[in-house]
Amino acid sequence: MTLRASISELIGTFALIFIGAGAAAISGDLIVVALAHGMVIISLAYAYGHHSGTQINPAVTFGLLIAGEINIITAISYWTMQFAGGILGAAALSFVLGGSESGLGATQFNPTTITITQAIVVEAVLTFFLVNTVMNTAVSGKAGNFAGLAIGFTLTFCILMGGPLTGASLNPAGMKEMQLADSATIVPPSAKDFPMLRNWKTGFPMCGPLGQVPGAHTTDPSSFS
After folding, report:
1. What is the mean pLDDT of residues 144-172?
2. Which residue range forms the structural domain that includes residue 107?
3. Domain presence at residue 220
4. What's the pTM?
5. Cβ contact 56:42 at 8 Å
6. pLDDT tens digit string along 130-153?
């Protein structure tokens, strides 16, 4: 773990929230939102992959920790920078949009069409797909320089399917754990304001161990660049 790797995680998560959630807040079109997230992942995987692996997702970091690919100190450092990047990205987004009235692209689900249990299952399955792809491309090294593409496309198809159901968060750092009341003040929301917080508190620990697939533990997570 290096300072450069930690900064890479902060910048990467900032970009994912600012661009991905920004596309959701501004456009709201499912294809636009899915492509915005996927393209950020692809671009930053090649920009910062040689530093930290461009995990930019606490669920991915958790999966790598469970798989024994990183140690707890590195995981804590990455988690800290990921959540910091998420908060800064939300703050910047709130500033450029003139406040949080747009919802800032926060992921939610409609309890009249899908239950919390169903939402948890959707998020767990989709997060498994994402972590599993990371393990079997970037970590295993088997995909070579195509790992970034595979991971970005995986996030894209997960959002295309899960977006209409749960918002397809797949990322605890992107769920607005701190709601921006305005461009300068961050106010913690209650759980009822963001149902996906309850979803992720269950789905996140479920999905990390699932990403610990056989044959994935062969190289450093920063194997693609």
Report:
1. 87
2. 3-210
3. no
4. 0.74
5. no
6. 989 998 998 888 888 898 999 999
